[in-house]
Structures are given as structure tokens and as C-alpha cells.
């Protein structure tokens, strides 16, 4: 694993070294990579965090041809078919495949398009992504939650709802890693794939739509200027509707497909204390450090040092803290908790490599979508209905965080606003443009809810799947997940959400 990750960062080290000569025709002092302090940043008040769509710099960066999406589509197809049709080959070679396909796209951007801007952004977003996921995964792995309670449909529903609430405090990744193992242990006598799928639906995705901490796209919106409590104020009705329907459906399914009468009768003879035991509680302090560090962003707090590159400010203090917490929380974790959780690094390893490929290869897809959405023809098509379905379906197959940014940038551009100006983002959120708050609501809900449509829609999905498989649960394939669960269960709920909140609005 270290060799593959080293090759990835070596590749992007070359990106940074090559950046000056490749952009020589437009080089200026702002094109160089420098560490900035509060005094250095004062000269550029309108600089904001990394974004896929950057109108101010587009003219100096080459654009990807349509065929360059082939590596991305190839990766998606291999993720879908590998575990099903050539499992041995895929399991042993997916790191090489993911890094290799990403390298093809990155080198094309560098040496053919002479575009360093997009790869650097992809690197920054990947580091932010993996730092948060890895630190939450490792810190929560040192907390053992033992629920000595009889497994019933009602107990399962309560745990899922609690997980949905917690996901707004420590993020969908933190809540998923904290509760997936207790959820599996609670149902150890009858754990089935549907348990894990509903967990992904409710805890790993839909649950985290009330705060910017809850899900990565909402956090990026907060960094761009969306007020912190805006998501709670606007998203709670859809949150309640979706979770209520999912809870009822899970309860009915669990009653029908749960324990057989014989197993249930045997279980009834077991005495349960109904107590919840926690081991490794000091790791909650590490989780708190991670959550606090989330807000150490140089685009929000000007005193935070940053990497200043190509008119952008990139965070590195936050990520350094998160990687340090990942190491320290494991180094000093309670060994009993680690053993009880059967903790190992395979789930985060799989996510790290798969998303190297996704972040590296999805640049052309996001660029083409963003370019069209901001064109005259695309802008004419922008309504809260098209924003809901467009953001949604792409969030299911692309990472939902950059998809959120792309559609927010497009929606704002269609009304003459710029996503890189914090005050204009605030105005957009506060409905100071035509139906702008409603459009942002459509983008926000869709990016979070639709993230559950596939294993790759949101980072925690893959980790939950991997942990479940390590526990002996035979999870459905990529297509099986979509055909057996997403389409018949989740999609109707997404349609009802659209029908209630958007279809007849305005």
C-alpha cells in the first residue's frame, strides 16, 4: 500500500514542480506555491477554498475532451463487475488499476492540456477527503460499544435513528464507523445484507443532512459561505420525511425477514441486561479534536496558515492534525477495544485506493458537466427540479462533494453570482437572488440523499461494505446493490421527497 500511495503523491509532486513552466505564459507571483500567513492573505480577500468550477481562471487552463471520461467509466465498470466476475484478480490488482487509470488522466492534463490547475485541486480535495475519513475511521475503531440487548426490529430502528442523529455531530463517516460494528453484533445471530444497506441509507447518508459537519458537500458549502444553521433550518422537513419512511420500511422488512420462530424462541430464553458498555472512551477526545480541526480552514479563519497556489488557499494545518490524530489514536488505543472491534486497516485501504482512482479520473466528467451547466443552453435549463435530479444522480456515481460544488457554481452563475465570493454565496443562501435559497435546498438535499444510491456515492458507504464483508456478511455487488435496494427502496423515497418539496413549488 505504501508503494502505491507513494507513487500517487510522487505523481502530484511532479504536478507542483511542473506548474510554473506549464503556465509560463500567465505566470505571476500568485502562481507560485508559498506558505501564507495572515499578513500575506490580506492582499486577496476574495480567494476561497478549492472548487471544481473557477470562472476567474478558466481561460488559462486547457479543457478536457469528451473521450477522456473513458478511464472514469472504465473504473466504475470494474468496481461494479470486479467483485462479481473476476474477484481474485480484482482483489489483488485494484490498487494498480485505480492508480494507473488516475495517472493516465493526470498525465493527459499535464502534458497535453498543460492544465495543472485541475490536478492540483484533485490532489487537495483527495487529501482533505482521506484525512477526514482515515482519522474518523481509526479514532472510532478504538471505541468498543457493547449493547447487551435483545435484537428486535424496534431495537434496530432505534439504533439507526440514533445513528442518524449522531451523524450530524461527528459526520456520517464518524457515526458509521462508531456504530456499524455494534449494529452487526446486535444482530449477530441473524445479520443479513439488508441490515447493512439500511444502515448505509440512514446513518451513512440521509442522516447527516442537518449540519455542515454531517456530510462533506454540506461542509464545503459552509466553507464557501453558506451559514452554519442554514442546513438545519431548510433540510429538516425532508430529513424527517425520508428517515420516517426508511424507518417504517426497515421495521416491516426486519419483522418479515428477521429471525425464524425457532431462533426467536431460543433467544427469548437468554437474559439480557439491556446495558450499553463503552470501552476505549478516551478516543472520544480524539474524535472531538478531529471535529474541532474541521473548522481550521484558512478560507474562514484568515490567521490559519495556508498553501497559496494559483489564486487559491489550500488548507494543510487541519489535515496535519487529522493525520496526527489517526496515528496517535491508534498508537494509544485501548487494545481490548481494538480486539473487540476486530480492527484492521483493510476498509480504509480499500477506500484510499478506490478514491485515488475516482478523484483522479473524474476530473473530465465534472469539468464537462460544469461547463455545460454554465453555458447559455445549460443555464436556461437550471431550475430547482433539474438541480435536484441532476445533482442527485451525479452524486450517486461521482463523489457527492465536488458534484455539490459544481451545481452550486452553475446555479449561481446562471444568476450572475460567483461561488468564489463568500458574500454572494451568503446572499444566494438567504434567497437574495430569484428562488436561490430553494435552489440551494434542492442541491443540498440531493447531494446527501442520492449519495446512498451506490457504494461510491459517499465515502462511508465503501467502508461500511468492507467492514460488513470482513464480518462474514455477503454483500451485494455494485449492480446488485442498485437493482435490489437502491431502485426499489431508495429511489421511490427520493421521488416522494421531490414530489413533496419541489415538484409543485413556485
TrEMBL record:
<dbReference type="Pfam" id="PF16980">
    <property type="entry name" value="CitMHS_2"/>
</dbReference>
<protein>
    <submittedName>
        <fullName>Sodium:proton antiporter</fullName>
    </submittedName>
</protein>
<keyword id="KW-0812">Transmembrane</keyword>
<keyword id="KW-0732">Signal</keyword>
<feature type="transmembrane region" description="Helical">
    <location>
        <begin position="64"/>
        <end position="85"/>
    </location>
</feature>
<feature type="signal peptide">
    <location>
        <begin position="1"/>
        <end position="24"/>
    </location>
</feature>
<feature type="transmembrane region" description="Helical">
    <location>
        <begin position="478"/>
        <end position="505"/>
    </location>
</feature>
<dbReference type="InterPro" id="IPR031566">
    <property type="entry name" value="CitMHS_2"/>
</dbReference>
<feature type="transmembrane region" description="Helical">
    <location>
        <begin position="236"/>
        <end position="253"/>
    </location>
</feature>
<feature type="transmembrane region" description="Helical">
    <location>
        <begin position="97"/>
        <end position="114"/>
    </location>
</feature>
<keyword id="KW-0472">Membrane</keyword>
<feature type="transmembrane region" description="Helical">
    <location>
        <begin position="126"/>
        <end position="145"/>
    </location>
</feature>
<feature type="transmembrane region" description="Helical">
    <location>
        <begin position="351"/>
        <end position="373"/>
    </location>
</feature>
<feature type="transmembrane region" description="Helical">
    <location>
        <begin position="157"/>
        <end position="180"/>
    </location>
</feature>
<feature type="transmembrane region" description="Helical">
    <location>
        <begin position="440"/>
        <end position="457"/>
    </location>
</feature>
<feature type="transmembrane region" description="Helical">
    <location>
        <begin position="284"/>
        <end position="301"/>
    </location>
</feature>
<keyword id="KW-1133">Transmembrane helix</keyword>
